[in-house]
Amino acid sequence: MTPRTYRIKSFGCQMNVYDGERMGELLNAQGMAEAADGADADLVVLNTCHIREKAAEKAYSDVGRLRREDGSRPLIALAGCVAQAEGAEAQRRSPMIDLVVGPQAYHRLPEMVAQVARGGRPVDTDMPAISKFDAMPARRRSGPSAFLTVQEGCDKFCTYCVVPYTRGAEISRPWDDIVTEARALVDAGAREIVLLGQNVNAWADGARGLADLIRALDAISGLERIRYTTSHPTDMDDGLIAAHGEVAKLMPYLHLPVQSGSDRVLKAMNRSHSAESYLATIARVRAARPDIAISGDFIVGFPGETEADFEDTLRIVDDVRYASAYSFKYSPRPGTPAASMEDQIAPEIMDDRLQRLQRRLAEHSTAFNRRCIGKDTRILIDRVGRKPGQMIGKSPWLQSVFVETAAPIGAMVDVHLTEALPNSLGGVALAQAAAA
Ligand code: 5AD
Ligand code: SF4
Q1: Ligand 2 center to residue 66 CA distance, Å?
Q2: pLDDT band at 421 (very low <50, low <70, confident <90, very high)
Q3: Which residue's CA lies nearest to atom 18 of ligand 1?
Q4: What's the CA-to-centroid distance between 256 and ligand 2, angstroms?
Q5: Which domains does the chain have, with CATH numbers?
Q6: 368-391: per-residue pLDDT in tens?
Q7: Which pTM was predicted?
Q8: Phi-psi region for residue 164, left (φ > 0), alpha (ψ -120 to 50) or beta?
């Protein structure tokens, strides 16, 4: 049977969200439609993430749960990084999986669905030289904030990380393709574009780097905001740092993972930067843009991490005063060098360190939010709030701001920030404040 409706479930990072959107557009172009909320879909795409914990097991149990009460099931596509890592093995472990498609091959999804309809069980985890993006339909729909993948893959080979294996070598999309897609997104309603890449600041097309691309997008009228994520500390070049001081549309927010504050651990992680060189980069960024919000990623319990190493991590957290952060317990990933290192850390110790780290990070993000009170700023409305008349928008520093306003989703609203809540801010719309 040829499926008519689909549902895509994306897990993990923003790149997966982007990939999920693009797969949806591909299926739409085939005449399929997204299944309505609550309705069964003929095709379910599980767009999986492999970065941490029992990723493969979770994917298989998600597959199992797609069986319906009457015993029937949708056509099931396993996509994303677990698909890449498991390949044909996925169908041996779970016969319910009709097709397996890796992150670099999903432009073939419609064709593979047709093969299943003819009785096939296709698997494609190739990383072809020609770009999947070339096979993609133009962008027609967008919310106020749109993801745009400009770079994929990673050559850094941090010893804990599966990305270089699941997403392959670093590749940059060409300049013209990106600018064309950005314009299409703005025409489709995007006010903000978030440039995505596993190492987005390594993006290059010939002599042009990410800073040049940001300056080109700055010239698109109708586009209000530019962001980018995720960056690697060693690719923060002078041009990109300068752009933070000079490009008005580039938001004052930088996600720059450090992972650990201990040079010994950073070396074992193959991070190619030290705590000191990281701090020096942050200082340069702050000199260019003093109000910038810094965000980071941390791993606790990397093999061999001592209490003293962990305290170095707490110290770097205090030095940087992160506005927000993501922190994780180390999770051994099959096939990565760190998985076979000695001195794996006991789970209780990891739990304890993660708690202590998260407490410290929360103190800093609360302090950052408090320092925003009293500022006038502009937010991009992206959601309807729960209270009547309430809308929620994003500040330049990526906090959610609650405000009473009649402005619709997609509007830019000037607000006076009045209140710091645990994970967000409260504000008053300025036109309203003036009238009151
Ligand atoms: N275990 C724990 N955290 C990990 N990350 C990547 N690989 C692992 C792993 N094996 C974290 C890093 C990275 C973020 C995306 O996920 O902090 O920056
Ligand atoms: Fe993974 Fe390191 Fe590459 Fe980031 S830089 S994707 S953590 S290998």
Answers
A1: 32
A2: confident
A3: 297
A4: 12
A5: 5-124 (3.40.50.12160), 131-371 (3.80.30.20), 376-432 (2.40.50.140)
A6: 999 999 999 999 999 999 999 999
A7: 0.92
A8: alpha
